[in-house]
């Protein structure tokens, strides 16, 4: 694939990634968002592990539940790159900085990306701790990691084929539409009601810019999102949203879903 012009930083970081991991290329990327760190253990012993900041252009995550670690693992002859944490818009960084780690993975040869996060559900047909599949997204941060005439088609951003594999592996997982807000504040009840009316099922503060960057580089996408709050009066939200509890709920689900993520990567790459 022809790499987009001007993305020298991502290519340079991919070269450094190869040096640090001993792997010339990687096949898949798994981004482990809020509380998803325990899922990394299901991939087994890493062949390399180091802080994200050892890679050019990578920023240390500041949010709770984001470890700021990169791991390279081998699973059934496939090289998988794990990011334990991510950078968010609300940390004061430009969209390109948020997207840079995914662009680096794409420059390193990645063909499939699994993007995980935690969400507030706007629907009450789920339980806290449920993991849902991202079917589509709404970019309500109204920005983009793309600059200039880079017209990336997002009409089928989240791979139907990979989503089907996820449903086969975990039939209890529902498919939902994820809405990105900039944060770091949580939305009001009025905002949550508006989001429901425009078609959102979940709301969060990450993932979408990574998805745009991945599709620019023809990387196949699947998203897994943990329900850590259910929005609106009467759903327990009156007590407020505790960021520490958000992470704790996601960690419990991640430990349980780790083997599913491993199988999703392997079967997704072999589809």
UniProtKB/TrEMBL annotation:
A Gene Ontology term for the protein's cellular component: cytoplasm
Keyword annotations: Glycosyltransferase, Transferase
Reaction(s) this enzyme catalyzes, per UniProt: a purine 2'-deoxy-D-ribonucleoside + phosphate = a purine nucleobase + 2-deoxy-alpha-D-ribose 1-phosphate
Residue ranges of domain Nucleoside phosphorylase in the record: 60-264
CDD domains from the UniProt entry: PNP-EcPNPII_like
EC number: 2.4.2.1
Pathways involved: Purine metabolism; purine nucleoside salvage
Domain of life: Bacteria
GO biological process, one term: nucleoside metabolic process
Enzyme class: transferase
Any Pfam family matching the protein: PNP_UDP_1
GO MF entry, a single one: purine-nucleoside phosphorylase activity
The UniProt record lists the keyword Zinc: no
Function of the molecule: The purine nucleoside phosphorylases catalyze the phosphorolytic breakdown of the N-glycosidic bond in the beta-(deoxy)ribonucleoside molecules, with the formation of the corresponding free purine bases and pentose-1-phosphate. Cleaves guanosine, inosine, 2'-deoxyguanosine and 2'-deoxyinosine.
Family, similarity comment: Belongs to the PNP/MTAP phosphorylase family.
Name used for this protein in its record: Purine nucleoside phosphorylase
């Amino acid at each position: 694939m022809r790499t987009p012009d001007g993305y020298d930083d991502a290519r340079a970081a991919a070269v450094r990634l190869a040096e640090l991991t001993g792997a010339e290329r990687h096949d898949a990327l798994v981004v482990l968002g809020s509380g998803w760190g325990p899922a990394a253990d299901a991939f087994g012993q890493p062949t390399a592990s180091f802080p994200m900041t050892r890679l050019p252009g990578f920023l240390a995550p500041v949010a709770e539940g984001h470890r700021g670690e990169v791991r390279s693992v081998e699973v059934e002859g496939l090289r998988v790159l794990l990011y334990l944490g991510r950078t968010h818009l609300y940390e004061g960084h430009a969209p390109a900085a948020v997207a840079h780690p995914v662009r680096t993975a794409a420059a390193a040869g990645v063909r499939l990306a699994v993007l995980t996060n935690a969400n507030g559900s706007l629907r009450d047909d789920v339980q806290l701790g449920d993991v849902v599949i991202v079917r589509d997204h709404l970019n309500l941060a109204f920005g983009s990691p793309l600059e200039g005439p880079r017209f990336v088609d997002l009409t089928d951003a989240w791979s139907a084929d990979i989503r089907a594999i996820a449903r086969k592996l975990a039939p209890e997982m529902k498919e939902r539409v994820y809405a990105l807000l900039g944060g770091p504040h949580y939305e009001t009840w009025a905002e949550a009601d508006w989001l429901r009316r425009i078609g959102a099922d979940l709301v969060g503060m990450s993932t979408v810019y990574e998805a745009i960057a991945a599709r620019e580089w023809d990387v196949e996408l699947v998203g897994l999102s943990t329900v850590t709050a259910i929005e609106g009066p009467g759903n327990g939200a009156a007590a407020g949203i505790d960021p520490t509890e958000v992470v704790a709920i996601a960690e419990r689900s991640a430990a349980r879903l780790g083997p599913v993520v491993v199988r999703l990567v392997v079967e997704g790459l072999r589809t």
